[in-house]
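Session log. Operator J.P. requested a structure for one protein chain; no other inputs attached. Running the standard single-chain path with token output.
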Amino acid sequence: MAKVLAYEEKDTWIHRLSGVTKLVFFLVWCFTSMVTYDTRVLAVMVAFSLLVFKISQTRWKQVGAVFKMVMLFLAFNVVAIFIFSPDQGTHVYGTRTVLFHIAGRYDVTKEQLFYELNVVIKYFTVIPAVFMFLVTTNPSEFAASMNKVGISYNIGYAISIALRYIPDVQGEFTKIKHAQEARGIEMSGKASFLARIKNTSAIIFPLIFSSMDRIDTVSNAMELRGYGKHKKRTWYMAKKLGRNDYFVIAFTVVFAALALGITFADGSRFYNPFTG
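Structure written below.
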């Protein structure tokens, strides 16, 4: 069974980067994407994200299932925005160009479509970066690298354990799903969408309880080994920042500064093609 979002050792320059470098890139990249609504900046970020994703040699079977769930959530989010705020685009861009009327207060406008297009693009700037970070970062090396730059080893170790258990939780989810299907609970595409959402509760609660048991086991094992007794610890895996690491960090910071500079050049973080 292929594990989703699991680290896989490969010989690419992205894999050879320090975990801290990839964390800095990920955080700065996500922050820039959240702040800007400039379509031009977002388009460049999407192209670069897809390029980095391609270079990392991430296989589709590692991320395909999660990608489908993200796309489902994205579709739900876009629909929810229109339902609860059908004139958000009008408020943002200051104009109102109706394409067609649906019912009541619901008009489809160019401004609303453009606003929601930007929301979709923002997702696509972040999703490849998330996948790249998770599947190219060795959890043990990442924890050691964080500690090397002054972050508490408790924080680094906690993140390391979380990264390690993503594929384990996914495997447990699949086992519980198959067990429930064997009991006659339909969760495949044969069932309706609402039925699948309802039947998911038959997986969620057993998964929560099994995860709590796993947490208890790990906690007891760490306590028996004297974890946390000393303020410092040594690491089996640690990677110093190299030339490529400094280059990537510098590039990320400079790109973010330029992107935000372009975004706020006219005093607003929204690119407005509807006014001259």
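Operator note: The mean pLDDT is 82.
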